[in-house]
TrEMBL record:
Lineage of source species: Eukaryota, Viridiplantae, Streptophyta, Embryophyta, Tracheophyta
Molecular function GO labels: copper ion binding; oxidoreductase activity
Signal peptide: 1-23
Domain Plastocyanin-like: 33-147, 160-297, 377-514
Top-level taxon: Eukaryota
Protein name: L-ascorbate oxidase homolog
């Protein structure tokens, strides 16, 4: 099942020596112990989930094509999994770390993730994917640098800061989970936090005249946020692995599960300034602050509190449309990002996905095309691999909204490897929705208010939109994307609103290749855990 920390360390050293002898891409090794511990994000003692006694957890710093060996020891009293938001896991959904692909790590045991950040750059985060653990922490930053010699479209910054921000509850995750299991929605969050702490708990020190990179992720549970730095402009340079046109913003909306990179130049009089995060589209506006301090600071924060946008949807929509792909910049490879002309590829299938909030059996649920997902006792990937009957059925979620009431189902949509999809997310609710697709990046070709129709395609950006893995859908609105299915596996499609996700607003996309070749998908890992109906299958 596992190994002790000392034995695993010896094994990792052997792997490193063998890999070096073969001239493979570099290996990076991590040994993490996941425990409970006391945390005080909003000044109240809570039970948090720590990694190596840290909250947030240790930062992963990698370079394109690195192999990451992450040995996770579960010292909690319940099963645990980590997933890697935005990391593509090429040919390798076995390492995705969601319940549809992996058996949970039992208490007192370990599991070693073996993943490669193949052909990827950019800013991401990892998080606990089971049992509403995300409400207790357990998340951390994940950045992938370009390989030496691959051009980056901006000079090296003087420093690189990670911002993990989002809403937070003072109640323990077990109490929040009980509310949801009882068929109720959660109350409004108690506050916002930045890097695990409330207001003014962190100071980011900069030198006057120098430029710094901030990687900003919304790791919250239920709310969009706006990020800004008092008196300073932000130049956006990267969105979830895509180098962007370098637009300048005063503030930036970051929706649930999203990550942005901006450059900030310390070009103001030397003193302290506020870094501000506020909630978006909420009647009550929450805020959290940190300090942006010049190393030669001549004084503390002065001036009025820098308020930003609050409930304005059009403002956010226009900002989202302004994001553009830098066509001449390199991505993870030296060829320009614009060399992939997504707008000239014919789509092979259109999928319309509409979210809803049905009450089923007297309990609040959330659904996609009327289907509210319920997990099986066996990971879908294992059931598919071993051809175990009775776990799921292909086609158990329709391609289009049904207009009917909600129902419970272990929903799996089938799709063909190398298909090129048009996916339209339709949000009929009064709140902003945020969607993530594991294993893939997609091109956000359009978004607007009202009902999507075929005529909406006339407004698509088929030249220079960004590609990413998490996208927002505004209230009573739609968002359309083009997505190449270039990654075989079982992939989670989910709401990044963690209440909606937990209560069923997700499903799995089975991208299938009949070739059964290692060129398309890696074989099952030798250390794969078995559970449910997969126990005894080897």
């Amino acid at each position: 099942m596992g190994c002790s920390m000392r034995v695993c360390s010896v094994l990792f050293l052997v792997v490193l020596l063998v890999a070096s002898a073969r001239g493979e891409d570099p290996y990076r090794f991590y040994t993490w112990n996941v425990t409970y511990g006391d945390i005080y994000p909003l000044g109240v003692k809570q039970q948090g989930i720590l990694i190596n006694w840290q909250f947030p957890g240790p930062q992963i710093e990698a370079v394109t094509n690195d192999n990451l060996i992450i040995n996770v020891f579960n010292s909690l009293d319940e099963p645990f999994l980590l997933s890697w938001n935005g990391v593509l896991q090429r040919r390798n959904s076995w390492q995705d770390g969601v319940y549809g692909t992996n058996c949970p790590i039992p208490p007192g045991h370990n599991f070693t993730y073996v993943l490669q950040v193949k052909d990827q750059i950019g800013s991401y985060f990892y998080y606990p994917s089971l049992a509403f653990h995300k409400a207790a922490g357990g998340y951390g930053g994940f950045k992938i640098a370009s390989r030496p010699g691959i051009p980056v479209p901006f000079p090296p910054p003087a420093g690189d800061f990670t911002i993990l921000a989002g809403d937070w509850y003072k109640r323990n995750h077990t109490d929040l989970r009980a509310i949801l299991d009882g068929g109720n929605d959660l109350p409004f969050p108690d506050g916002l936090i930045i890097n695990g702490r409330g207001s003014n708990a962190y100071t980011f020190t900069v030198d006057q005249g120098k430029t710094y990179r901030f990687r900003i992720s919304n790791v919250g549970l239920t709310t969009s946020i706006n990020f800004r730095i008092q008196g300073h402009k932000m130049t956006i340079v990267e969105v979830e692995g895509t180098h962007t046109l370098q637009n300048i913003y005063d503030s930036l909306d970051v929706h649930l599960g999203q990550t942005y990179s901006v450059l900030v130049t310390a070009d103001q009089p030397p003193q302290d300034y506020l870094i501000v995060v506020t909630t978006r589209f909420t009647s009550q506006v929450l805020n959290a602050t940190s300090i942006f301090r010049y190393s030669n600071s001549g004084g503390s924060v002065t001036g009025l509190f820098p308020w930003g946008p609050t409930i304005q949807v059009d403002w956010s929509l226009n900002q989202a449309r302004s994001l553009r792909r830098n066509l001449t910049a390199s991505g993870p490879r030296p060829n320009p990002q614009g060399s992939y002309r997504y707008g000239m590829i014919n789509t092979t299938r259109t999928i319309r996905l509409q979210n809803s909030a049905p009450v089923i059996n007297g309990k609040q649920r959330y659904a996609v095309n009327s289907v509210s997902f319920i997990p099986s006792d066996t990971p879908l990937k294992l059931a598919d691999y071993y051809k175990i009957q009775g776990v799921f059925s292909l086609g158990s979620i329709p391609d289009n909204p049904t207009g009917g009431g909600g129902y419970l189902q272990t929903s799996v949509m089938e799709a063909d490897f190398r298909a090129f999809l048009e996916v339209v997310f339709e949000n009929t609710e009064d709140t902003v929705e945020s969607w993530h697709i594991d294993g893939h990046s997609f091109f956000v070709v359009g978004m607007d208010g009202g009902q999507w129709s075929q005529a909406s395609r006339l407004s698509y950006n088929l030249r220079d939109t960004i590609s990413r893995s998490t996208v927002q859908v505004y209230p009573k609105s739609w968002t359309a994307l083009y997505m190449p299915l270039d990654n075989v596996g079982m992939w989670n499609v989910r709401s990044e609103n963690w209440v909606h996700q937990y209560l069923g607003q997700q499903f799995y996309l089975r991208v299938y290749s009949p070739a059964n070749s290692w060129r398309d998908e890696y074989p099952i890992p030798s250390n794969a855990l078995r559970c449910g109906k997969a126990v005894g299958h080897y």
